[in-house]
Amino acid sequence: MQIDVEGLREEKGSNMSIDMAEDFPSIDLIRSELVFVEPVRFVGQATNTGRRIVVTGIAYGRARATCDRCLSEFELPLESSILETYYRSDEAPDSPDEDEREYGEDNIVDIAPAIEQAFILLLPIRIVCDEECKGLCPQCGHNLNWGDCSCPPDESWGLFQRAKIIHKE
Length: 169
Description:
By secondary structure, the chain is mainly beta. It is built from two helices and nine strands; from the N terminus they run E-E-E-E-E-E-E-E-E-H-H.
């Protein structure tokens, strides 16, 4: 998602509205992958603050994810606020702020990395299809959201509880 800021750089304080949508590449989460099922949309504005371009707005997307409990695929809506500051590479400050991003002398600001990072930070530690997801049977792997499996009850939990009671006495 690239924004041409050449005209914006002409006058400090000038701004431009942004409303764009693009196909977005999958995001590799190591344990699984977010696959976008529709274009990611960004609505916001870019402002010239002098030697910086500040981009603010909201990114929207819908991605297919894999549930960490039951391993089923489901669609996950994503929406995140974006606030990013960019400086041009030939106008780099002596000590740039670690939150600032660089753009090239071609005056093209690429906001895709900022959107990807915002979407990743939005995700919970465990991605689940539903808070009530029952997961998989640890013995046979049956998805317990579809109903009970035919495995006998897991006796190890009962043995653990009995051992705790005996140990207390």
